[in-house]
Fold:
Amino acid sequence: MAAASRADSLPPSPRALIVNADDFHCDRQRSLGILAAARQGIVTSVTILTNQGWEVGLTRSLKAAFGRGIGVHLNLSEGRPILGGSATLTDARGCFLPKQQAWRRALCGGYRPDEVEAEWAAQIEAAQARGIEPSHLDGHNHIHVFPQLAEVAARLARRYGILRIRLPLESVWGRSPRRGVKGAFFGQLAGQAARVFSAAGLVFPQHFAGIHFPRPGRVDELLALLDRLPEGTSELMCHPGYARLPEGSGFSSPRRMQELSALCDPNVLEAIRNRNIRLVNFTDIPLP
Structure:
């Protein structure tokens, strides 16, 4: 039984947890691992890369496993855009820029917002064309919280009636031992984006985890997160999958399998029950 459906069997609780697996459709191994994490573990929500091609069987399984808990992973750094002819979105080969280059371009205002808006609209519509009404939006590599791009994401959310969005402001653990320059950087961007999203009438979980702590591939860290989960709704970002044998490459690697194993670990499942934590997805966040 999918983890999302277990929320209905739990008694009322002041603590709710969304466990969102990113990058469905980036490759088959990752998609299969995400499905397994929903069926056997605690994953309740998923976001899809809609520019990466669609496999009918996987899409059918995606809908069966997640129901209403399917969001769109707004993307400017993996594969090629759905729309062609952009001046700022791609390199000379017509591919999106790699993550670090995309971050630099976004930070420096190098993307044309109209091009980003058209491409992200096409990515949302690609999901809708396959019968998916997105539960929420988030960004591949958190690109949706960068200056100007947060405004684009908010406009599209309003246009398509997708009023729930990720805010990658890691607050559950405060000053994690691993929280360094990257954490401070994204914390500042997310804080600015929160004002943009709130002004647009969007809602997001009160707490977020998964950038620095916990590492979803570590059972002990997942258990520590559950022990200290605050009241309200929290999101845990994760990336389970299977490795592309023999060695794994790109998205599909042994690290992804470690996450899959930990998210399905019986001790984690038992801790969810014992701590009366309600597993939910983004549609369970009430709208104003």
The first helix runs from residue 28 to 40.
